[in-house]
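Postdoc handover notes: sequence design on the structure in folder B. Input tokens:
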């Protein structure tokens, strides 16, 4: 059974195509790892900040679990610039991983296309005067595998980037509402 499967995919033998596919699969692993890690950490952070905001709207003090609590505690008077600095620091912390997802979503189709172009060039160079569909078809299908995997990696990377960017925006808006309540008190 295993030999039948391997014989069907025997045409993926070009070392460059294999290295492109390996590169893209490493990208895919990190895309999923970053997404799940950041999704759950941002969800927990948003939950804490939401409960802190709700507490503040009910007239209570800022929760100790809020990212702005340490800024408030540092000075006797609430300073707008200090709170804005804390919000910026929180934004930097919350944005981790988004840049990588953006890079992967934009570069992985090109990496796959690179593998495709090189594989097609190698296939044409080995053909010589003997050209038939039996010689061209396996080389073209090997080349297209790299493009397909590049697109396969780009789609979840882009989707996950958008989901995390939405969570990031939610977090920042909650922090800004907390800041506004603190400054109005």
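Designed sequence:
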């Amino acid at each position: 059974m295993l030999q039948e499967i391997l014989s069907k995919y025997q045409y993926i033998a070009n070392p460059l195509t294999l290295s492109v596919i390996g590169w893209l699969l490493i990208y895919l692993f990190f895309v999923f790892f970053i997404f799940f890690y950041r999704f759950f950490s941002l969800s927990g952070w948003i939950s804490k900040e939401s409960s802190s905001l709700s507490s503040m709207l009910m007239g209570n003090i800022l929760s100790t679990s809020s990212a702005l609590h340490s800024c408030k505690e540092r000075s006797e008077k609430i300073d707008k610039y200090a709170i804005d600095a804390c919000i910026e620091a929180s934004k930097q912390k919350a944005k981790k991983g988004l840049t990588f997802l953006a890079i992967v979503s934009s570069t992985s189709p090109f990496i796959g296309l690179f593998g495709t172009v090189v594989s097609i060039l190698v296939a044409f160079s080995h053909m010589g005067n003997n050209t038939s569909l039996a010689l061209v078809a396996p080389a073209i299908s090997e080349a297209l595998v790299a493009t397909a995997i590049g697109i396969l990696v780009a789609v979840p990377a882009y989707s996950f980037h958008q989901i995390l960017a939405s969570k990031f925006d939610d977090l920042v808006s909650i922090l800004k509402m907390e800041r506004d309540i603190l400054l109005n008190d």
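Context for whoever picks this up: The chain has a mean pLDDT of 84. Don't rerun without checking with the PI first.
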